[in-house]
Amino acid sequence: MSDRVEKFRKEREALNKAILDRDNINIKRFFGIDSAVYREGALDTKTKELLGLAASTVLRCDDCITYHVIRCAEERVADGEFDDTMAVALVVGGSITIPHLRRAYRLWSELHSDE
Amino acid sequence: MSDRVEKFRKEREALNKAILDRDNINIKRFFGIDSAVYREGALDTKTKELLGLAASTVLRCDDCITYHVIRCAEERVADGEFDDTMAVALVVGGSITIPHLRRAYRLWSELHSDE
Amino acid sequence: MSDRVEKFRKEREALNKAILDRDNINIKRFFGIDSAVYREGALDTKTKELLGLAASTVLRCDDCITYHVIRCAEERVADGEFDDTMAVALVVGGSITIPHLRRAYRLWSELHSDE
Amino acid sequence: MSDRVEKFRKEREALNKAILDRDNINIKRFFGIDSAVYREGALDTKTKELLGLAASTVLRCDDCITYHVIRCAEERVADGEFDDTMAVALVVGGSITIPHLRRAYRLWSELHSDE
Amino acid sequence: MSDRVEKFRKEREALNKAILDRDNINIKRFFGIDSAVYREGALDTKTKELLGLAASTVLRCDDCITYHVIRCAEERVADGEFDDTMAVALVVGGSITIPHLRRAYRLWSELHSDE
Amino acid sequence: MSDRVEKFRKEREALNKAILDRDNINIKRFFGIDSAVYREGALDTKTKELLGLAASTVLRCDDCITYHVIRCAEERVADGEFDDTMAVALVVGGSITIPHLRRAYRLWSELHSDE
Questions:
Q1: Is the Cβ pair A92, D93 closer than 8 Å?
Q2: Which pTM value belongs to this model?
Q3: I need a labelling partner for B79 at 20 to 30 A (CA). Which of B6, C96, E1, E105 fits?
Q4: How do the pLDDT tens digits run along chain E, 115 residues long?
C-alpha cells in the first residue's frame, strides 16, 4: 500500500482518538453510528461504500472521498463499478466535483498499482 | 399510483420539454448524459438509483429525491434497502437532511400503499 | 400560538413517527442524538438553540429554521439576541440566505403577535 | 406582467421592510451592499445580473433565481444570453440544479409571453 | 502561541490587506460588517464566536474554523462549551464535517498546550 | 507566467488525461460539455469566464477558482471587472467565501506582476 495511504490512516486514527478522548457523549455516539451505518444490512458493505463515496463526492470532501476510495478498494470494487459511481456523482454534482474526481482517480490508481 | 406522483411526472415532463425546445446544444447534451448515467453498466440500474437517491438526499433537493424515490419503487428496491440508503445519507448529511427524509418516507409509503 | 405553527408541529411529529416506526436502528439512534445535543450541558439550552438556528440558516433549510425559531421563542430569546444571531448568519452565509431570513422574521413576528 | 411576478415582488418588499424595521445596523448595512453590488461599475448592470443569476442557480435558491430572472428580463437580456448563462450554471452545478432550471425557464417564458 | 497560529494570522492579514488595497467599495464595506457583526451587542462576543464557529463548521471552511477556534480561545471559551458547539455542528452537518472537527480539535489542543 | 500556474496546469492536464483514459463514455461526454459551455456563443468567452468564476467562488472550489482566474487573465479581464465579479460573489456567498477571495486575489496579482 502506498505511503500516502498509510499516513492518511495514521493521522485519521490519531485525530479521531483525540476527539473521542474528550468524552463528549453525543460526539461519541455519533462516531458509533458513523461506523455502524456502513456495516452489512439489507445492503451489503460494498454497496454501502459506493453510497458513501457518491455522497462524499457530491459534497466535495476530500478526506471523506479518500476514506471511501480506500474502503472500496478493500471491498474489491471493480474498476467499472468505481467509474459508474464517479459518473453518477459527476453528473449530479457538476463540474465543481471534477478536482475531487481527479484526486479520487489518482488514489484509485495508486491503490491498484502493485497488483 | 398516487395522484401526487402522476402530477409530479407530468409537470416534470412538460417543463423538461420547454427547456429542450430552446435548442441549446449544451443543455440538450447534459440532459442526454443525465439519462445515460443511470442505465445499466458495471452497476445495475437499481444500485445506480440508490446512488442517485443518496446523492440527492445529502444535497437536499426535494424534486430530485422525489424522482429517485419513484424510480427506486419501480426498480423494486426493498424496504430495508431503502432504509439503509436513507441511513447512510442521514449520517453523512446530518440532521439538516431530516425534513427531506420525512418527505421521502411519506412518498415511499404512498407508493406502496395499494400493494 | 398561530395555526401555522400548530400545523407545522403536527405534521413534523406525524412524519417523524412514520420514520421511527420503520425500526431502522441507525436512524433511530441518530434521532436520539439529535434530541440530546440541544439539552443543557456546558452551554445552556438557549445558546444551543441559537447555534442550531445559525447553523440551519447558513445551510438554508426552512423546516430546520422554523423548528429552531419556535424553540428560541419558547426559550425566551430576546429580540436583540434573535437579531444578532440572524446578522451573524447573514454575514457568514451571504445574500443567498435572505429569503430564509424573511421567512424566519415573519414567523418570529407571528410568535410574538399576541403578547 | 404576470400576477405571480407581481405577488412575488409585493411579498418580497413587505418582508424586506419587516426585517429592516428591526433596525439592526449590521443587517441594514448588508442590505445596502446587496443593492449596491449590482449597480453599474466596471461591469454593466446586465452582466452583473447574469453573474447573480448564475451564482443563485448553482447555490439553488429559488427566490434568488426568481429575483434575478425578473431583473434579467428588465435589463433586456436576450434569449440566447439567458440560455448560455443557464448552461454554464447547469454544467458547474450539475443535475441537482435542473429543478431550478425548470422553474427559471417557466418564469422566463411567462415574462415574455405578452411580447 | 504555536507557530502555525502565528503564520496563519500573518498570511491572513497580508492577504486581507491586498484585497482591501484594491479599493473596491463594496468589498471594503463587506469586510467592515464582517468585523462589526462579532462585536458585543445583545449577545456577548463569546456567544457570537460560538455562532461563527458552528456556522463555519457546518459550511466546512477550514480557514474560517481556524479563525473562530483562535478567537474562542482568546474569549476563554471553556472546553465543555467548545465540545457542545462542535457536537451541535456535527449533528446538524453530519459526518461530512468530521475531517474539519479533527483539525479544529487539533488546533484547540495546540492553543491550550502551554497552559 | 508564475511557476505555480505552470505546475497547476501540468498536474491538471495529467490528471484529466488519467480520468479520460478510463474510457467511461459518460465521464468523457461530460468533459466535452464542460469545454463547450465556455466557448463563444450568445455571450462572449470573457463573460462566460466571469460566470464560471462567480459560480466557482460561491461554491468555494479553489481549483475551479484557480482555473477561471487564469482564464480571465488570458481573456484580458480588467482589474475593475475582476473586482466587480468578486464583489458579487462575496455578497451572494457571504464571508465563508473570503478565504477563497484571498487566494484568488493572490493569484490575480501573480499573473499580472510581470506586466
A1: no
A2: 0.97
A3: B6
A4: 578 899 999 999 999 998 999 989 999 999 999 999 999 999 999 999 999 999 999 999 999 999 999 999 999 999 999 999 999 999 999 999 999 999 999 999 999 986 5
